[in-house]
Specification:
The protein is of the alpha+beta class. It has three domains: 12-102, OB fold (Dihydrolipoamide Acetyltransferase, E2P) (Beta Barrel); 133-270 and 417-541, Bira Bifunctional Protein, Domain 2 (BirA Bifunctional Protein, domain 2); 289-408, GAD-like domain (Gyrase A, domain 2, 2-Layer Sandwich). Helix content is 30%, strand content 25%. The protein has helices at 57-60, 117-122, 124-127, 131-153, 194-202, 240-257, 271-278, 304-311, 327-338, 360-373, 390-408, 446-450, 482-491, 496-509, 524-532, 562-568; strands at 18-31, 34-41, 44-50, 68-77, 91-102, 157-158, 175-178, 186-189, 207-215, 227-236, 267-270, 292-293, 315-321, 346-351, 354-356, 381-387, 416-420, 425-428, 433-436, 462-467, 470-477, 517-523. A hairpin with a 2-residue loop joins strand 14 (346-351) and strand 15. ATP binds at residues 216-218, 225, 471, 523-526. Residues 194-197 are annotated as: Aspartate. L-aspartate binds at residues 170, 216, 438, 478. Homodimer.
């Protein structure tokens, strides 16, 4: 028997028990000839004591850190001055037998050492031995388990959809898989099971879910991976309200499983309100500092920079903050907003009851009015900017607000909300056409379509769940009319032939009786990262890719043998 108990299990009540433990050696100490071993597994740590007269003593001299051993011995209480706060801190095991199961070479680092992320990913099996990473993976498992339990208890069926599917490029690039049997043809790894889950609704499977891998060949950042995991959900005979209520209950139950209490009711704000107040469609409201429209204060301003913007129909916006401010800091903020197409920022603060600013001699009247209107107090700072594109202005100030919040505001707790009423379409400068903001299967507001409003003003029955400034889930009510679906394809510039080529199988399904349906998909990686307080989803994925899409553990992607390419009918160009 390798073990009777885990290394995190034994307590003072187990005193006198004969036990067998197995694990990795974290530390070995010698105190007056007595050997103390800290034995570790994923459940915790237990101190092992080997006396010089123990039959196991000779074997201890052969041991080194990270060796895998098992020991047999008797549980005893520690002396009062040796008790620690560890789960097993009241006891130790007096070893009588010790077996070496596997020797470890000298590792490039020991679990818990402060090393680069590159080293951690290359030797991920060492990194995963740390208590922090172990806890992260356990938290992820608990969230997934809670989702399965909740959805199963609510009559959802877990149904698998294909990983080898048809390429229907809309948005991110597909990962393509060549077919050996049909040379020149390719499968695509699914970016999401979107069409398949809608077809399941047509099939009568009225409540579907799947914890599914998805694949997108796109540029990566902290919260993106080329392969990621979704909790995918679809429901028939539902309105938007039905989906939102179920999704809230699901996420509350998942987070409760890991000891996190979310609000009893999630606030709802429109996309337009989110952009106006926070400059983001995934606002983190914990920072406060809402954006304010200040245009009215500058209508008669003679300050040329603002005068020029207002003459073009532009706006002035800003926000109040309690932060240090100097010319150097203001220059840094100006450089930051230039990345968004703005010329820079203006600022003023209240100092000894007076307005202080590098531009006070030009704008003292305006600054004074703003300070009174927004009840500024000693030390408050107002940061503002102007631009003729209101959306760009909001986005820039929203990004600056987040930067300042992360650097200067200590936040606690969880803020959860829905963002609803997204634009149905957005204009793509790159493609010179309207594209679907979410995807082209989202139901638009019928009153917007029928009233003949501008396409850019049409709203969608789409919704995103946002927790602490991260979009953790997104979904919509779907189009269930073939005629409307074809009309949408036409609006986004797909000819009938292109629509038939890409989505013919789906359009055919829409001919045979389609229930009203909608759904949502949650990013399990993001939910787990928020739960453990990680900035990067790589911290909650066992074997993640780097920001360049490579796996440092296996060196994937890698070259393949010429014979494999020949078998697939593929020739590489230099």
């Amino acid at each position: 028997m390798y073990r009777t108990h885990t290394c995190g299990e034994l307590r003072a009540s187990d005193e006198g028990k004969r036990v067998v433990l197995a694990g990795w050696i974290e530390r070995i100490r010698d105190l007056g000839g007595v050997k103390f071993i800290v034995l570790r597994d994923r459940y915790g740590r237990t101190q092992i004591v080997v006396n010089p007269d123990s039959p196991a003593y000779e074997t201890v001299t052969q041991l080194s850190r990270e060796d895998v051993i098992n020991i047999e011995g008797v549980v005893r209480k520690r002396p009062p001055n040796a008790v620690t706060s560890e789960l097993t801190g009241e006891i130790e095991v007096l070893a009588e037998k010790l077996n070496i199961l596997s020797k470890s070479d000298l590792p490039p680092f020991y679990p818990g050492d402060d090393v680069s992320e590159e080293m951690r990913l290359k030797y991920r099996y060492l990194d995963l031995r740390t208590q922090r990473m172990t806890n992260n993976i356990i938290t992820r498992h608990k969230l997934a388990f809670a989702a399965r339990r909740y959805l199963s208890e609510n009559n959802f069926l877990e149904i698998e959809t294909p990983y080898l599917t048809k390429s229907t490029p809309e948005g991110a690039r597909d990962f393509l898989v060549p077919s050996r049997l049909k040379k020149g043809s390719f499968y695509a790894l699914p970016q999401s099971p979107q069409l398949m889950k809608q077809i399941l609704m047509v099939s009568g499977m009225d409540r579907y879910f799947q914890i599914v891998r998805c694949f997108r060949d796109e540029d990566l950042r902290a919260d993106r991976q080329p392969e990621f995991t979704q909790i995918d959900i679809e429901m028939s005979f539902v309105h938007m309200e039905d989906v939102l209520q179920l999704a809230e209950e699901l996420i509350r139950s998942m987070y409760a499983e890991v000891g996190i209490k979310l609000p009893e009711k999630f606030d709802r704000i429109s996309y337009e309100e989110a952009m106006e107040k926070y400059g983001s469609d995934k606002p983190d409201r914990r920072y406060g500092m809402e954006l304010q429209d200040l245009t009215q204060f500058f209508k008669s301003s003679e300050f040329k920079i603002i005068q020029d913007v207002l003459s073009k129909g532009g706006s002035v916006k800003g926000f109040k903050a309690r932060i240090p401010m100097s010319r150097k800091i203001a220059d840094e903020y100006s450089e930051f907003v230039k990345n968004f197409g703005l010329g820079g920022v203006l600022w003023f603060r209240l100092e000894n009851g007076q307005i202080a600013s590098t531009t006070v001699k030009y704008l003292e009247k305006e600054y004074t009015e703003i300070s009174k209107a927004y009840s500024m107090e000693e030390g408050d700072v107002f940061i503002l900017a102007a631009h003729d594109n209101r959306e760009r202005l909001s986005e820039a100030l929203g990004a600056l607000r987040l930067k300042i919040g992360r650097e200067h505001v200590k936040v606690e707790g969880f803020d959860a909300l829905w963002v609803i009423d997204f634009p149905f379409l957005e204009w793509s400068e790159e493609e010179n056409r309207f594209v679907a903001r979410h995807h082209p299967f989202t139901m638009p507001y019928e009153e917007d379509i029928n009233s003949g409003v501008e396409l850019s003003k049409v709203r969608a029955h789409a919704y995103d769940m946002v927790i602490n400034g991260f979009e953790v889930g997104g979904g919509s009510i779907r189009i269930h009319s073939r005629e409307l679906q074809e009309k949408v394809f036409d609006i986004i510039g797909l000819t009938k032939e292109e629509a038939q080529e890409k989505f013919g199988f789906f359009l055919d399904a829409l001919r045979y009786g389609v229930p009203p349906h909608g759904g949502i998909a949650f990013g399990l990686d993001r939910l787990a990262a928020i739960a453990v307080g990680a900035d990067n989803i790589r911290e909650v994925i066992a074997f993640p890719k780097t920001s360049s899409g490579t796996c440092l553990l296996t060196n994937a992607p890698s070259k393949v043998y010429p014979s494999q390419l020949e078998e697939l009918g593929i020739t590489l160009k230099e």
